[in-house]
Amino acid sequence: MPNVSDESPVNKINFANFTEVLVDEVIEDLFEVPTLGVCKCDRCRYDIKALALNSLPPKYVVTRKGEVYAKMDVFRNQMRVDVLRAVIEAIEIVKKRPSHQ
Ligand SMILES: [Zn+2]
After folding, report:
1. Do residues 18 and 61 make contact, with C-beta atoms less than 8 angstroms apart?
2. How many A from CA of 58 to the centre of ligand 1?
3. Is 55 part of any domain?
């Protein structure tokens, strides 16, 4: 028997800021670069994410849970360059002035 609460409609709906999804993707990608030269701890990662998101317009989306963001591909293509630029700028700021020593 499936859990009753899992079957309620609200649990099948996902609310997200798609800009945040993209920022997470870009940070993930850039953190793979060995020569990036920025601290990769959680604090610095969140600082980078916050800085990047504050400089980008939000894009709120409502999807059914498990639904892929495929229909957002147009938006992804439009935003990818801006998101990349914002994350790189944020990395430069955190690199110069990390919140910790
Ligand atoms: Zn750090």
Report:
1. yes
2. 26
3. yes
Token representation of residue 78: 């439009």
Q: How far is the CA of 100 from the centre of ligand 1 (A)?
A: 6
Q: Answer yes or no: is 63 within a domain.
A: yes
The residue whose two tokens read 């990047």 is 52
**Higher confidence at residue 54 or residue 63?**
54
In a domain, 101, yes or no: no
Task: Output the CA 98–ligand 1 centroid distance in Å.
Answer: 6
Q: How many A from CA of 47 to the centre of ligand 1? A: 9
Residues with beta carbon < 5 A to ion ligand 1?
Answer: 39, 41, 43-44
Could you tell me the residue range of the domain that residue 70 belongs to? 4-96
The residues, ordered by sequence, that sit 6+ positions from 88 with a Cβ below 8 Å of its Cβ are 30
pTM of the model: 0.81
Share above pLDDT 70 across residues of the chain, in percent, rounded to a whole number: 83
Overall domain count for the chain:
1
- Across the chain, what does the average pLDDT equal? 87
**pLDDT tens per residue, range 22-35:** 999 999 999 999 99
Q: Distance, CA 32 to ligand 1 centroid (Å)?
A: 16
